[in-house]
Amino acid sequence: MPANWYLTQHLNPNNGRIEWPGGPITGVDPGYDPKWVEAWAVQGGGLSATQIWMGPSQSTTQSSWSGFTPGSWAAAEPGWKNGNFQPGLAMGISLLALRNNATGTYEYEWWFEVVMLQ
Length: 118
Description:
Elements: E1 8-9, E2 11-12, E3 17-18, E4 22-24, E5 32-42, E6 45-48, E7 51-53, E8 57-62, E9 72-74, E10 77-82, E11 88-100, E12 106-117
Parallel strand pairs: 1-12
Antiparallel strand pairs: 2-3, 4-9, 5-8, 5-11, 6-7, 8-10, 11-12
């Protein structure tokens, strides 16, 4: 199932939070219903092979799958946040829970992508 983040994500300059992570989603099997999505973002990078630069991170979720624009996902319930994001590149990571309508069991899809914070 192809899913991704929108390349540009909104950065709130007042609180350093990404509001609200989202992206396109296509190809959900008709026998499955999306139930929730978790999204994490991290920013930082290595200065050299021997140095690590610690950066901000956050989590957001969408605990129920309703009201989304068809063909997209969004995580608009704030979770934890460590540090303040800055404009520029970051890494987005997501996990989607899908319920099999025939069996009632769950399957999970995850993806990651470099995003631009603006």
